[in-house]
Amino acid sequence: MLGECGMKARDKTALRKNSVALLRELVVDELLIQILQADDVLTEGMAETVLTEPTSFKRSSRLLAYLPKRGPRAFSSFCAALRETEQQHLCELLVRFRDQQRSSVYDPAFPLPTQECAVPAKRTRTHESVEMCLDADSPVTTAVLPCTSEFYLSHSAQAYPMCSSPRGLALVVSNVQFERELSELDTRRGGEVDEEVLRRLFTELDFTVIVQKDLTAQAMRSCIEQFVRRPEHVVSDCSAVCLLSHGVEGSIYGTDGQLLELDWVFERFDNARCPELQNKPKMFFIQACRGEEMDNGVDQLDGEDQTPPPGREQRDAGRDEKSERESAVRGQTESERLRVKLPQRSDMICGFATLKGFSTAAMRNTKKGSWFIQELNAAMRQRARDTHLSDILVQVNGCIKEREGYAPGSAHHRCKEMSEFTSSLCKDLYLFPKYCPK
C-alpha cells in the first residue's frame, strides 16, 4: 500500500515543469505500465484506464495526472521505467531538473528555456528534414490479441503447423549509425524505434528474438549464417528475419557502406542450405530503400477498372488441365520409385516497405519509426488472431496507401509510399498467437 504520503514537492515540480516535453516525447506502452504496476505505483484499474486512451497524447496525460498522487516512490519508479523502455533522455531531463532545485532556489519568474532542450528537439519540417509524417499520434499499441481454441480447431487443418513454443527464432538486424569514414550514409533517425517495436511484437507472438545492431555487410553475412545454423530450427515451426537499413534495389547497406544482396539472404534459407526449415514458413520483412525516385503520388480520377482481354485465362487453364492429366499418368509409376522432392526455394513470404525503384527516405518518423513497421505492428497485433499473414500484408498495403508525408515548402510534401510483398507460401500462415494446443 502507498499510504497517505504523497510525492515529494520537488518531484512534483519536476513533472509539472517538464510536462510539455513529456507530453510531446513520452511513449506510454505496455512495458512501461507493467513496470509501474509491479512497483505498486499503478493499480490494475489505473493501468487499464491509461492503456485504453485513444491517442498517445491522452495516454501520457492520464499517466502524468496519476503519478503525483501515488506516493513518494512514484517518481523514482517512473524514472526507472523510462530507462527500461529506452527513454533515458526523459529520465535524465527529470532528474537533472530535480537536482538543480536542491542546489538553488528556483525563481518562478525565470522561464528556464534550456530545460526542454535536454530532450532532443523535433526537426523542423524543411527541405533538410523530410522524416516527419502527417500523423499527430501513432496508433495505440495494444497487446497481441489471442487466438481462440475454436478458431484454431476450424483453421489449423489447411494451415502450416503452428504448435511449437516458442514458435521459432526471429532475427532483427538494425543499422542506424553508419561509419562516416567509410560511407556517406546518414544516420537512420527513428530506426531504433523500429527495432524495439519488432522485438516486442515477436516476443509477444512467442518467438525467441535476437537483435543485432549496426553491422557491416560482412558482419551481417556472418550473423545470418550463424542464425541459419541454430539448432532451435529443428523443433520450431517457423522463422522470421527483419532487416532494417539503407538500401537499393535488391540489396541493403552495412554500416561500412558495402552492400549485402537480398537474394543471398534468401538463398541461405532455401531447402538445400537450411533443411531444418524445409516445409516450414519463413518470414522476411525489409525496411529499406529500393531506389532513388520519390513517389509524389498522382491525382485519383473516377473510372472503371480495366480488365484483361477475355479468353486468355480460359485457354491457359485448358492447356494446364491437359498437361496435368498427362503428368499424372507418368507420375503414377515414377512416384513409386522416386523420393519426394522439393523446389530449391519455397514456403517464404517477404514484405517490402516500398515498391521496386522507389525511395523510402521520407517515410520514417524520428519518434515513431517507419510507416511500414508501424502498420505491420498494428495489423499483427490486431489481426494475427484470426487472419493469415498474406491477408495481413494486404491490409498493411491498404494502410500505407492512405498515408502522406508532411513537409510544407519542400518537394517531399504530400509524398506517398506503397509497400508490397512476395510469397511462395503453400498453405495459410496463421500464427495462432497465445494458443498452445494440448
Comma- or semicolon-separated keywords:
438 residues; three-stranded antiparallel β-sheet; six-stranded mixed β-sheet; 11% strand; 14 helices; alpha/beta
**Oligomer designation:** single chain
Based on helices, strands and strand pairing, what is the structural class?
A: alpha/beta
Order of helices and strands: HHHHHHHHEHEHEEEEHEHEEEHHE
On the 0 to 100 scale, the average pLDDT is 80
Task: Tell me the radius of gyration.
Answer: 25 Å
Spatial gap, N to C terminus: 39 Å
Low-confidence stretches: 105-140, 304-319, 333-337
Question: Major β-sheet, in short?
Answer: 6 strands, mixed
Shape summary: globular
Number of strands: 11
**Widest β-sheet, arrangement of strands:** 2-1-3-7-8-11
Helix proportion: 25-40%
The number of helical elements comes to 14
